[in-house]
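S1.2 Input.
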Amino acid sequence: MAGHILIVEDEQKIAVLLQDYLEKAGYSAGILSRGDQVLAWIKRNPPDLMLLDIMLPGMDGIELCREARKYSALPIIMITAKVEEVDRLIGLEIGADDYICKPFSPREVVARVKAVLRRTHPEPAGKQLTVGPLVLDESTYQAKIGGSELELTPSEFRLLQVFMSQPGRVFSRDELLVRAQGYDCEGYDRTIDSHIKNLRKKIAVHLPDQEVINTVYGVGYKLSYL
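S1.3 Output.
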């Protein structure tokens, strides 16, 4: 799921860390550090979602969210170091779509972004992807090679879907976890290796002389052009 994310955060290290993780997950991401810069910016350059810290110079996140809601349905995830329930409720009552408390895992933030975008920007009806003899139908959840159906698990299907959406592109394990599994969980990146091993075996039954999914050592995996 592509999209542009605006990060409004005055702690530079946190902002850059979030930007790195979001870009690895396939999003583009910009950073603003002052609250009083935001309203004019989003009017000129509407993002697909805003990650909004509460404690900001210039204008705080609560007031920003309240003002933005007067003219925009922009999805907003509040970021706060305050853990009192009243602060969380206030954030949601003024129109925020979700909140996350510091300290947080950047991977959890990426997962929350995906979930909010999925709710607020529903994906269009499934389409058919074709790469050489590989055909994947997103609406019927079927994958075929030369007319023969591949019996794939849900994880294998989503991995193949990611690869076929951008053949030739190299995906890291972290990207594949975020895109195929939804939530990118610490310590689970090696499960991608197992899924890809099984996916390769199933494809090799029909294409025994071709290596369809290539390993790019030290980087990740890619789907070959067939």
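S1.4 Remarks. The CA atoms of residues 1 and 118 lie 8 Å apart.
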